[in-house]
Amino acid sequence: MSCGLTAAPRSGLVLFLADTRVTPGRKAATQMFQPRGLPPRLLFPSHPRQHPELPWLFQGCWGFPCARQRQEIPSTCDTPGTWLKLQAGAGAGAAAGLCSCPHLMGTQGRIIPRCELVKILRNHSFEGFVGKTVADWVCLVQHQSNYNTHAFRDEGKSRDYGIFQINSKYWCDDGKTPGTSNTCHINCSKFLDDNIEDDIRCAKIIAKEARGLKRWVAWKKHCKGKKLDSYVKGC
After folding, report:
1. Architecture of the domain made up of 114-231
2. Residue 86 CB: number of other CB atoms within 10 A?
3. Fewest 10 Å CB contacts: which of 95, 121, 128, 176?
4. Which residues make beta-bridge pairs with 6?
5. Rounded Cα distance, 18 and 147, in Å
6. φ and ψ of 35, to 5 deg
7. 118 near 72, Cβ under 8 Å?
8. To 5 degrees, how large is the angle CA 194–CA 135–CA 168?
9. Shortest CA distance to 156 belongs to which of 175, 177, 182?
10. Tens digit of pLDDT for each residue in 53-106?
11. Cα separation of 206 and 212, whole Å?
């Protein structure tokens, strides 16, 4: 999966989640039109400032769910062929509709490079922890948050926070989720900064309690039982 972007003058932005996997007789993406200064289909650059012509609203949502080239969209936003329109200057509320799946959005968090994350996880003894490899964790992070430290998903009754998408119903307290267990004894906002030490401690608590990574839907869908060498290759 990847993202393509087209922009219509005076009519806002259109975000296209296109299925780019090769299938017989199926086009990978659809082109609409070519506004000034933008190609008809643009894979996201590493930083929005490379394209200052994009409105503030779009830049404010940069980095998630399709922050980097050649990476898959997290499983929480896994519907191909979805079109959405964001009106330029419509305000932050419009960003909540970034995906057609449940209220997935993000802010300008830090995108941790894959090999840097591999090093961090190795230094925190993730290799072999609860019987899983560092590759399992990197795969989990890619598909849950796309390496974005500020990733946030609002499910209505609860919310997922940070690079590990830790849920407010069971693991942290965001002041909005009734009856939270807050097993990690922490405010959820701590998972939205660029320091992931708190995230790591809580992720280990979750994994230890579950005796594995089954609490993360993206891991079960994209990583479990699969060859994961590519997630740590070159690191």
Report:
1. Orthogonal Bundle (1.10)
2. 18
3. 128
4. 14
5. 20
6. -75, 165
7. no
8. 45
9. 177
10. 333 223 333 333 333 322 333 333 332 322 223 223 333 332 222 332 333 344
11. 8
How far apart are the C-alpha atoms of 109 and 173, rounded to whole Å? 21
> pTM of the prediction?
0.58
Tell me whether residue 108 is exposed, middle or buried, using C-beta atoms within 10 angstroms of its C-beta: 0 to 12, 13 to 18, 19 or more: middle
The answer to whether the CB of 231 falls within 8 A of the CB of 117 is no
The residue extents of the domains of the chain are: 1-101, 114-231
User: For the chain, what is the radius of gyration of the CA atoms?
Assistant: 18
How far, in Å, CA of 32 to CA of 51, rounded? 19
| Element housing 58 (H / E) | helix 56-60
Closest CA to 98 of 52, 144, 64: 64
Max CA separation in the chain (angstroms): 53
Whether 164 has a pLDDT exceeding 60, the answer reads yes
Amino acid occupying residue 144: Q
Strands 13-18 and 82-86, sheet pairing: antiparallel
Q: How confident is the model over 163-184, as a mean pLDDT? A: 95
pLDDT tens sequence across 99-115: 323 333 444 578 999 99
The per-residue DSSP string of 73-137 comes to PPGGG--TTEEEEE-TT--GGGGGGSSSSTTEE--S--B--HHHHHHHHHHTT-TTGGG--HHHH
Residue entry with tokens 């989990």:
140
Tell me the average pLDDT across 224-234: 96
For residue 154, which phi and psi values (nearest 5 degrees)?
Answer: -100, 115
The sign of the torsion formed by the CA atoms of 142, 194, 177, 213 equals positive
